Amino acid sequence: MRCAVFKNLPHTRTINSRVSQVKVGPATDRGRWREALSWDTTPSSVPPSYVIAENSMITGSLRHLLLRMACVFLMLPSIANSSGSDIVVPWTIREPEMRGLSKMLEHTNKGDYKATQRIAKRLGKEYVVLAQWLRLRHDCVSQEEVNDFKANHPEWPSPVERTKTAVMTSISEVKPECGRLRKSAVFLNYSTLPRDALISVANRLLWTKRIRAAEYIANNLGEEGLTTTARISFRRNKKDLDSIAVSPVFASMSSDFGLMYDYISWYIKNRQISEEILLLMSSMPKDQKYHRELWYLYRLYIGEIMYYKLSRFYGTAYALARDCTRLVDASTLPEVHWLLGWIALKCLEDHEAASTHFTDFYNTARTQEHKSKAAYWAARSAEKLGNADESLGWFRLAALHKTTFYGQLSLLQLGVNKVLLDTKTIRYSNLHYLRCRKNLFAKIGYMLSRAQRDDIADLFVQHAIKTTNSPEIAGMITELALSSGNTHSALKGAEYIGSKLLLPASLYPQQYLAVHDDHKEIMLSMIRQESKFDKKAKSRSNAIGLMQLLPSTAMELARDLQVEYQESNLLDPEYNIMLGRHYLTKLLKTYNNSLVLALAAYNAGPGNVNLWLKNLGDPRKLESPGELAEWIESIPFPETRTYIQRVLANLHVYNGMSGKIMTLGQ
């Protein structure tokens, strides 16, 4: 009788002994290995640091001793490659199991939930629960059924998004995904609900930007729906609404916060700033319940003042922003401090006040973006005050956040022209593999990713990551998502893990673009911001695919390239990137290779960019990164400001990964 313990066996090796010859490899019957170690030793399973070779003569007591030895050996560390593509899968997923899941998804899509359940029962009890989850996700079921599932399976991710249920739960037990406009009458049961309840529902729908649903209700309310109808007109930004402003609807405007809010928003966007609108804003109730809406109105008003350089209102703008420090909650307070500092710096030229506000901004900031932004502008304020040492200290603080736009500007200020990420090898132990193997949601997410159902897979991947208390296991789940082709989930996972575990391949994916591709780094940077590498992404404005192209724009681009256009093709990564690349090339040519202007036009449209060139000046004529930062911050669209800054920040990281230096592309 012989037995041996072999360390780090390759996938195929021949072991000689006096009694037998055992061949370890993919073609070997591994029943006894599984019996000894309670796992499968196929290359796709946990890579054992030690494998026990035995023959049929091993006694029970010796087998028990060997098993205990194996458990001790398993505690020894093994090294896993952190590139994502080489990570070892901790589960044995055989073809019948994968095929069964694909059939379950196929039947679910057809609405044949009985067939889904039949297949699930053959696969195992966890698949039976998954079949229930899939039905709740796809079918029109009652809220009671959803609640029962949550009560019976509290550890599972919710099959229904909470934000969508919030609108309807107070008046209906029906899941809102089923509330397509034509079904609204059935779900809301107009014949039994009081009119006040319907008006309340319509208003809540407006606050959640579900305008078409609110309009459907308002049309069934007659005269009682006039206020809601007026709000809808303002929200749709119709131009000739002055007649509404003097109609009987406005007689009770001061008591209707929603109507006042929508009217003032419309007025600021379509009329010149005046004392009258300021007076109306001042009369709005300072209700804590509406603090976000009030902050939006104030920010909109202040933005118009600064954009059009209405100097007579600068003091008013500063006072309004200062009032918000007592009104908003902690999550919005950093933005208020930023705006106060910006007004003080750019409009009032009060550098002492600016320095104070940017310091407050830094102290209340919670994100890397906000920290670096606060520190950068505090440094600029200190420069204005002649405090060179204080300015240098702030620049160094901002530079700690080197993946952000302002962190990178600070690096340039400090004489560093390249962004280099830490690329330490991540060490996953066998214990990490075992714990990951026991994570059911990680396995489901991985299998759904392999089945190319990234939309559902993402829910399980993120749930698995957020419910583990180990950064290493979260890192493994993230890298498994990347290795299965689910780049979107890997990126989201890496962002969630953050500084606890740096995963460069997941944080800055390089899928879909060839090494030699023109504008490779720029395209990757745009995709990372546009869709986070979600090839099926679709925005509220109907922008589609990796590069978030509007169908109307895509049709024009396809015509330029003389290729066939079908909207469904925009979900194909290669086709989407082809059109997006062509659009970027056109914009770069239009703006003489100014990347900042091309990005602004890609996000907000060339028409808006041409207006900004008239009102803000031409950034191509600016001489320093600091001046360019000021120009970007003067753009009146917050989304476009953020978009340009994040794409440039991504670009500098991708350039660093390719050994290139930073370029702001003025």
From TrEMBL:
InterPro entries: Lysozyme-like_dom_sf, Lytic_TGlycosylase_superhlx_U, Transglycosylase_SLT_dom_1. GO terms for cellular component: periplasmic space. This is Lytic murein transglycosylase. Belongs to the virb1 family. SUPFAM superfamilies: Bacterial muramidases, Lysozyme-like. Pfam families: SLT. The keyword Transferase does not apply. GO terms for molecular function: hydrolase activity, hydrolyzing O-glycosyl compounds. Keywords: Signal. Residues 519-618 form the Transglycosylase SLT domain. The keyword Metal-binding does not apply.
